[in-house]
Amino acid sequence: MGVVTSAAAEQARKRAALLREDLAGAGVDISYGLALQLVARQLAAAGCPDTPEVSPGVPVLRVMSVAQALPFYLDYLGFALDWEHRFEPGMPLYVQVSRSSAVLHLSEHHGDGSPNGVVWIPVRDVSALHAELLARANAPVRPGIDRDAPGGPTLQVIDPYGNVLRFAQPPSAQ
Hints:
alpha/beta
């Protein structure tokens, strides 16, 4: 996917204005913003190369020691270590861990946020994840499920550095 050029943006604006006019002629009044969103969706569905693709973000969680944080993420939460990066020996470590489609970066770098961050992670079956975590030998925490959480039933765990991971089962997954 490429960057939207000024010509492509102008074309989208013209299409949005034309869509508004056509709908108004049929007795349907929509805002320009909605018309522009509809045009963008049409272009994306058509595979228009000028429509930029935005992928899910990757949270960066600050940890003081990756070596101390990894057992929590790998052994307890069941994530896998994908890769690690260090500019040179003695420099802070930066790693990526993942489980299913959840991806997190853990960073020892001072400028990469602060401890006590919060990440909301959707899960298909929060009860199954809860049972899995409770079954772990030497589990560092024994979380419960908040069944009335705003994003759906939520299992909250806190890593050794105060970062909060909220595994939530959205209503669409229930």
